[in-house]
Amino acid sequence: AARARAMLLLCTSMAALMAALQARGAAGLACGTASGRLHKTAHTCRTLTTRLSASTGSTGGRTSAAVTQNAEKDAAKRTAPMDLNPPRGTRDFYPEDMALRNWLFGQWRRIASLHGFEEYDAPVLETEDLYIRKAGEDVSQQLYNMEDRSGRRLALRPEMTPSLARMVLARQKSLTLPLKWFSIPQCWRYERTTRGRRREHYQWNMDVWGVGGIQAEAELLSASVSFMRSVGLTSAEVGVKVSSRGVLAELLTKLGVPDDRFAATCVLVDKLDKLPADAVRQSLLDGGLPEEAATTLLEALAVKDFDELRRIMGADSPVVRELEHLFDLAEAYGYRDWLVLDLSVVRGLAYYTGLVFEGFDRSGELRAIFGGGRYDKLLSTFGGENLPAAGFGYGDAVIVELLKEKGLLPDLSSSEIDVVVFAMQESLQSTAVSVASSLRRGGKRVDLVLEQRKTKWVFKHADRLKARYVAVVAESEAEKGLVRLKRLADGEQTDVPMEGLAEYISADGDKQ
């Protein structure tokens, strides 16, 4: 049927060409010869089309109906109203949304700067292999991936750490350690959307490379807590669960579980905050863990204090000493009351190797607020020499939800417009443009009314923008080189020389 349709299309095209040639009948022998050849080709085309139609037999009617149905669907799509919503799990940022986003990013950048971190960025489009080498937690199944025209497999980044590792590896021999870098990338994952979880989000990442001790994690936690304090959150509202994959590794070794079961066990244990303990226990058993080992493991991971942890792991356990050191450093930093020992936290990403942590809403309304940990062996995944590293990621959607719930979102409705400039008549528009340009050169934020409007509309517009002044360019004042300036706070009007308008506004603002 497809071949028949193609032949019919070819015949139609040839018929049109023949008609054109015949219309130019006086074009000579060449035209006549070409026309004769086209007649023969068209006859062959019609014969083949007839045979193809006959060969479809009883299915011809169904094929024709299907073609008609598809055409009707295509026509309906073209005439149906366009869906004006963004793709599921994504967002539009209208000006008021951008104001909030810029405020949040500004807070993140300020905290990163206070802690001595430098900003970096990387392409949102990376090679797919970067993420499927050692991702974990089904990230490879959540990729937005594609093949380009050259056959290369690409993906939109689901997280930033692999891109950072690639960048560090590319200049590993020339970079001066330690590195303290941060970024605010947009990330993409095809996953189920829930409150605070989207298919695209922005994420504040802070990472330290080249520091093997727990001091790196302590500094990172200091930055995360500093941010939460800066936006009005307290330790009574938000906590940070702290654990170490080393605890799980030591326990599994003591229980005789093979090393090759470690990664799979981490993935199952990571579900403890999402599923009942019995369900996780059954998953461990189904995964090949002996019953006694599964029971002992879950009991140990339920420990919430160091005394009990030392009893189980032994006072000389390196992992226990490392965790205790972190809590001591937290005391010195001043955020000890934010931390909670929770050994069930292992984080889903497969590249974590040591201490891990996760911010959480103490009311239990929201998913993890942020998370991170140590990943000392990531570079070897890409064929490089390993370098100690630790970092965290903070999603924008969940923190905005939390601040909204706590009533802590800032009032960003105040305008950044200093002056609205408009001309009373069209002939004065050039003068209004000169006034606006002069004010902008003087550092003032100006909204120039671009079309002829009534005075009433202009002042309503200025009120909506919450502008401080309206500069009226009127004929009588303009002839004298003056502008009528109205201060909207109290309605006071003053005629001010055009040349000194920016300076006058600055001085007037200082008086208020």
TrEMBL record:
GO CC term (a single one): cytoplasm
Membrane spanning stretches: none
EC number(s) recorded for this UniProt protein: 6.1.1.21
InterPro entries in alphabetical order: aa-tRNA-synth_II, aa-tRNA-synth_II/BPL/LPL, Anticodon-bd, Anticodon-bd_dom_sf, His-tRNA-ligase, HisRS-like_core, HisRS/HisZ, HisRS_anticodon
Reactions performed catalytically: tRNA(His) + L-histidine + ATP = L-histidyl-tRNA(His) + AMP + diphosphate + H(+)
Region ranges (Disordered): 53-91
Signal peptide stretch: 1-28
Domain Aminoacyl-transfer RNA synthetases class-II family profile: from-to ranges: 88-410
Protein name in UniProt: histidine--tRNA ligase
